[in-house]
Prior knowledge:
Number of strands: 3
Largest sheet: 3 strands, mixed
Amino acid sequence: MxxxxxxxxxxxxxxxxLSVWDCTLEGAPPPWLAVRQGLRMVKSLHAEHGxxxxxxxxxxxxxxxxxxxxxxxxxxxxxxxxxxxxxxxSLNLNRREALWSIRALGERPLDLFAxxxxxxx
Length: 121
């Protein structure tokens, strides 16, 4: 990442709705491409949890941290790690707001909500 920045390549942050596990290239103002940081850049995020976030991401993206938590079934500790990496920008949440939203969650999604999400797919 440092080399890309030193050469003027735009580097975009990790984001739960825009990142995949690995870093990728995205369109940017010509003649550049930008590097989107992958979920692997989130300190202490397990690959399994990152994969579920990507695999279960709805077509329009997650609309809230609670929806991500219920759909992806990742532990709260993983959500906190993403929040510390400022990875909820597409939800218009800064680090502090994301941490407060995560604090309101329990440790496991209620089965009732998981069943409704599976049905609505």
